[in-house]
Amino acid sequence: MTARSWRDLPGWPDVDVVMPILNEAEHLEAAVASVRAQAYPGRLHIILSVGPSIDGTEEVASRQAESTDDVTVVANPTGKTPSALNLAIRAGSAPVVVRVDGHSQLSAGYVRRAVQILRETGASNVGGIQRPEPTTPFEQVVADATTSMLGTGGASYRLGTEARAVDTVYLGVFDRAALEAVGLYDESLIRNQDYELNIRLRNAGGIVWFDPTLSVGYTPRSSWPRLARQYYEYGWWKSVVMRKHPRSVRLRQVIPPVAVFGVGVGTALGLRWRPAFLAPVAYLAALAASVRATARPAPTAAALAVIHTTWAVGLLRGFVGSAD
Hints:
CATH topology of the largest domain: Spore Coat Polysaccharide Biosynthesis Protein SpsA, Chain A
Number of helices: 13
Low-confidence stretches: none
Structural class: alpha/beta
Number of domains: 2
Shape: globular
Order of helices and strands: EHEHEHEEHEHHHEEHHEHHHH
Radius of gyration: 21 Å
Number of strands: 9
């Protein structure tokens, strides 16, 4: 079976599940077990790309590979996610490649359904809902913030209800031929490498397809510093992708920095000219409306403000840093 002909052949194609792993000793066995629980009707092979860890992850991964023939371990010396993914992809040969992260929880039948969608749509990449699974009150606040309209900008993988072609999807299930044709993941990108890869797939004439019947659970950030760092890094690396692909810029990506700038300028000017306070008041009103139906409106609004501010600062510093 070749990667270019699998869609036209009967039966279920082989699947490689690629997993970038770093410091996951406590959770690795459960992560592998959750993939096996998919009960995919074809051959499914799990490839763990393991970075230098300090918790014994390498030993746990080796035991997984020794105890079964459906797991392969490859070393990822840099520990970086895009490098891990590329090493794992190159270590396999299946015509379908499924990305799964260390703490991901795939919905029942995810792999089977994604393969069906690839075949039916001819897409290069398919994905579904990014489903938050909070375990603490703070994580619930973050989940509420990131699944609100102001926290997502209308991104399909957060709030989508209609199957359709989109700009990007969460994680992804790929046609290997399309993935290899565009050169796999850009290893210079620590963050935002998924979005950038999907830009190249679309530029090459491929379809990136969202289907809400697919979902992947994840754990939201567990503290204010971690949330702030996450979105600062998102903003910084978004600036890199914008420079690489300026035509990929969308309105929803421009709104947060414009809003934050407007709040800052409006507050400063408002001390001398009262009408300028309209900008921060309008922003606060938008936050209030967005979180009105949540269990904890005040902290959820605060989380949104942190997300917007740190993302905007990261984006700005990324652009300023590129000009130095």
